[in-house]
């Protein structure tokens, strides 16, 4: 993977310079023209936005990354002397001249790309824009066995992937990106996806399983996907995945798109994500932990931990009256292709309830059908968002054990029917 | 204000990418968290009978004054006693703060950046871990029928291979390489690499074809044998183990050994343990026999497959995730080892304790089998 790095002053005059560089990087990466252009315009918008609401002495760092199946632009701005709240997605800021910027919002930028995430980390505001390369999508069709006989488990290769995607295309409810063999091959080749197949001696495959290979603490598993009559491969494929991840930084695997061949008995049901059941398999022994709770979620957590057998000592997070900033900050990751967004608390503030409601309203108005708000139960101040979330129609959906510093509580909001 | 610590620059990549091992919390803390009055630790293959009688006597009669002086820096007396037992010279023995420490001594002595070690994929993990965080590549050869694959290991040797690690009998499968198989491996290695024979569970072996490592040591100068006082000898809390090998090989290892790392109490207790007249080991083996038989029959009745050969442990294949089963058993006061991290997903390793404790464990497992088989859904 290639990176293009540059630094420009946070001044409007330089926004177009950065945009040209982003577009040029897209061409050099061999991306189709519209991809570089969309990211260039989005980057220009962000720098101009930063120029209007920040300290112009602070430069903006850009990294353009060739992700093979996507192009990524990361923009970082020093948070010092900056008002992080200006980067709350719904905010339409006006610093000097309200008329100039009243239509502006990062929300517009977010909608122009496939994925947009914003976070505040280590004194930096960081925005990541992501635009996907278009690929041919396989049509669905009837699923038939492509061979017979015994199979053995093999690490997935690019040769296997086209055949595996053909199987996947015949199974309903699979994630859309798996219907694009070109993208899946590219993801495996750059190490973002790994997998295992059940291969017959004649080279045909009875099925396979894929998983994210980024080294995250909790990673997503897809599959197993099997041809008719190959159900016996389901459990060995899952075990091959778990063996591949043993003794790594990964503490668990999660499945949010369990298909008909998914061996549920090897996993633990966590809850419902958007509309799909969520399953989890832990890779390491859990030795108990202390977590922070809010009274509004305590019954849900008590029931969940009891059901799953987790030992958790719950401590209520209380406002001790210490000074907190006036304005909270929420990081947003919009997932254009899934019609939803993942929200994460960045900074606490006195306005959490209004801020949560504002995010919900803006994202819903932008057409998003679902939102998930992640609260890390290992980080006390994040619990200060919970009352506002519950009051804004978010409901506790499931936990991801050890998914963050502590367990992650996923609070879900779904658009009312018809929206 | 001081500059932020740039750990990405300071810490080598092979250390940054390594996930630290997190030991379990103390019993009192676990009992509090899991709300159980007592926790039976069946996860570390300890000996519930406790140390041999001579070691108990020494421990109970210790004069606290002895801890105010440094211990023997190279466990002089203990090495002398072991040298008598092994019929070798004192300098052919290195004592470590547990066998884990001597694994580290050997890797440091023989491996540099770019070198590799060869071991199995599903065996005691410490050699693999130490190699990884030392910048040495572990080549992991899959077990064949739950046994070390001699041909696979020999084939994996190249010019950068420095050490082969063989756990005999293997933890966690309990399988062993016979005298003939080990002799065959040593012949085929032909001095190209050091061969480590980790015999942590040798005291439990009662099969006639288990290799006599004393005889092998005489013939193979590239062989080194590890033993521990933590398992059958029941001195796990004192952390003491050792290696024995050819004089030249051990001379190289000693250069990386940490002097004074064995405390005085551990040295005294280990010396005393070796005075045992056989009563302790006999009682230990009898207990393991009885418990293995009890659990094997129960698992058959519960339709739970097992791998059970040698050592004071056995493996159980559960019809659910091993980590989930671990939690549910903890809730009932029994702590087993979930084996996903040993690359045995779905298996738990059970330390064989007294028959009465095994009876309680069987009851607890019986409770969770139907419970987890009917995976409860969120309400």
Descriptive account of the structure:
The complex is a heterodimer of chains A (419) and B (379). Chain A has 419 residues and is α+β, with helices and mostly antiparallel strands. Chain A folds into three domains: 1-134, Heat Shock Protein 90; 151-282, Gcn5-related N-acetyltransferase (GNAT) (Aminopeptidase), CATH 3.40.630; 286-419, Aminopeptidase, CATH 3.40.630. Helices cover 27% and strands 31% of the residues of chain A. Chain A has helices at 12-28, 33-53, 98-101, 106-112, 158-169, 181-189, 234-245, 298-308, 352-365, 386-391, and strands at residues 3-9, 59-66, 70-78, 115-121, 124-132, 151-155, 193-200, 205-212, 218-226, 252-255, 268-272, 277-282, 289-293, 312-316, 329-335, 340-347, 370-376, 395-400, 408-414. Chain A has a ten-stranded mixed β-sheet. In chain A, α1 (12-28) runs antiparallel to α2, α2 (33-53) packs antiparallel against α4 (106-112) and α5 runs antiparallel to α6. The longest helix of chain A is centred in the N-terminal third of the chain and has 21 residues, at 33-53. Chain B is of the alpha/beta class. Chain B folds into two domains: 9-50 and 279-373, Alpha-Beta Complex (Aspartate Aminotransferase, domain 1); 53-273, 3-Layer(aba) Sandwich (Aspartate Aminotransferase, domain 2). Helices cover 39% and strands 15% of the residues of chain B. Chain B is built from 15 helices and 13 strands. Chain B has a seven-stranded mixed β-sheet with strand order 2-8-7-6-5-3-4, sandwiched between helices. Chain B is globular, with a radius of gyration of 22 Å. The N and C termini of chain B lie far apart (52 Å). The model of chain B has no long low-confidence stretch (mean pLDDT 95). The interface between A and B is large, with 36 and 38 residues.
Provide keyphrases for this structure.
heterodimer; A: 419 residues; alpha+beta; Heat Shock Protein 90; Aminopeptidase; 3 domains; ten-stranded mixed sheet; seven-stranded mixed sheet; 10 helices; 27% helix; globular; B: 379 residues; alpha/beta; Aspartate Aminotransferase, domain 1; Aspartate Aminotransferase, domain 2; 2 domains; four-stranded antiparallel sheet; 15 helices; 15% strand
């Amino acid at each position: 993977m290639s990176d293009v790095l540059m630094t420009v002053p946070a001044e409007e005059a330089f926004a177009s310079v950065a945009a040209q560089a982003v577009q040029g990087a897209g061409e050099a990466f061999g991306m189709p023209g519209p991809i570089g252009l969309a990211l260039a315009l989005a980057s220009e918008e962000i720098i101009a936005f930063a120029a209007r609401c920040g300290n112009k002495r602070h430069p903006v760092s850009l990294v353009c990354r060739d992700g093979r199946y996507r192009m990524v632009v990361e923009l970082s701005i020093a948070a010092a002397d900056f008002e992080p709240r200006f980067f709350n997605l719904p905010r339409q800021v006006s610093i000097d001249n309200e008329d100039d910027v009243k239509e502006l919002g990062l929300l517009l930028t977010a909608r122009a790309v496939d994925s947009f995430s914003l976070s505040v980390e280590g004194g930096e505001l960081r925005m990541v824009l992501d635009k996907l390369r278009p690929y041919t999508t396989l049509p669905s069709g009837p699923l038939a066995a492509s061979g017979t006989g015994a199979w053995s488990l093999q690490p997935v290769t690019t040769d296997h992937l086209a055949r595996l995607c053909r199987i996947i295309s015949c199974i309903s409810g699979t994630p859309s990106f798996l219907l694009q063999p070109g993208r899946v091959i590219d993801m495996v080749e750059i190490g973002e996806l790994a997998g295992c197949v059940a291969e017959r001696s004649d080279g045909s495959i009875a099925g396979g399983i894929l998983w994210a290979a980024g080294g995250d603490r909790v990673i997503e598993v897809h599959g197993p996907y099997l041809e008719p009559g190959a159900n016996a491969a389901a459990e060995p494929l899952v075990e091959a995945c778990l063996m591949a991840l043993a003794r790594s930084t990964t503490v668990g695997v999660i499945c949010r798109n369990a298909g008909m061949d998914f061996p549920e008995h090897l996993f633990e049901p966590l809850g419902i994500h958007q509309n799909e059941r969520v399953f989890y398999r832990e890779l390491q022994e859990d030795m108990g932990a202390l977590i922070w709770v809010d009274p509004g979620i305590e019954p849900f957590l008590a029931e969940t931990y009891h059901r799953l057998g987790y030992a958790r000592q719950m401590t209520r997070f209380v406002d001790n009256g210490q000074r907190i900033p006036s304005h909270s900050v929420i990081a947003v990751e919009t997932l254009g292709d899934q019609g939803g967004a993942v929200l994460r608390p960045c900074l606490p503030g006195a306005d959490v309830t209004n801020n949560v409601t504002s995010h919900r309203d803006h994202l819903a108005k932008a057409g998003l059908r679902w939102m998930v708000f992640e609260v890390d139960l290992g980080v006390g101040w994040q619990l200060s968002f919970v009352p506002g979330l519950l009051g804004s129609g978010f409901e506790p959906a499931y936990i991801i054990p050890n998914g963050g510093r502590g367990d992650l509580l996923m609070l879900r909001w779904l658009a009312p029917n018809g929206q | 204000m001081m500059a932020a610590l740039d750990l990405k620059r300071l810490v080598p990549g092979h250390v940054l990418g390594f996930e630290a091992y997190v030991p379990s919390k103390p019993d009192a803390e676990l009992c509090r968290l899991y709300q159980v009055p007592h926790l039976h630790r069946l996860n570390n293959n300890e000996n519930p009978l406790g140390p041999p009688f001579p070691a108990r006597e020494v421990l109970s009669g210790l004069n606290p004054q002895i801890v105010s002086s440094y211990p023997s820096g190279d466990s002089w007396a203990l090495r002398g006693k072991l040298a008598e037992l092994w019929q070798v010279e004192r300098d052919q023995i290195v004592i470590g703060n547990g066998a884990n420490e001597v694994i580290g001594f050997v890797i440091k002595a023989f491996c540099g950046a770019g070198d590799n070690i060869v071991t199995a994929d599903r065996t005691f993990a410490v050699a693999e871990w130490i190699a990884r965080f030392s910048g040495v590549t572990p080549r992991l050869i899959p077990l064949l029928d739950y046994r070390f694959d001699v041909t696979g290991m020999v084939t994996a040797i190249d010019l950068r291979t420095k050490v082969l690690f063989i756990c005999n009998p293997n933890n966690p499968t309990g399988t062993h390489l016979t005298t003939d198989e080990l002799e065959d491996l040593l012949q085929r290695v032909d001095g190209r690499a050091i061969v480590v024979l980790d015999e942590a569970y040798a005291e439990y072996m009662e099969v006639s074809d288990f290799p006599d490592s004393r005889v092998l040591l005489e013939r193979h100068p590239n062989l080194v044998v590890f033993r521990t006082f933590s398992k059958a000898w029941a001195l796990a809390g004192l952390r003491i183990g050792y290696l024995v090998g050819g004089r030249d090989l051990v001379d190289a290892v000693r250069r990386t050994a940490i002097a004074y790392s064995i405390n005085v109490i551990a040295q005294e207790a280990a010396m005393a343990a070796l005075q045992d007249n056989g009563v302790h080991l006999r009682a230990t083996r009898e207990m393991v026999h009885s418990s293995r038989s009890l659990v094997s029959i129960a698992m058959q009745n519960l339709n739970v497959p097992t791998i059970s050969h040698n050592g004071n442990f056995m493996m159980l294949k559960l019809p659910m995730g091993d980590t989930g089963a671990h939690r549910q058993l903890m809730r009932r006061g029994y702590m087993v080892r979930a084996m996903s991290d040993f690359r045995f997903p779905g298996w738990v390793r059970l330390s064989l304790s007294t028959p009465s404790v095994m009876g309680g464990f069987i009851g607890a497992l019986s409770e969770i089998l139907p419970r987890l088989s009917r995976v409860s859904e969120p309400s």
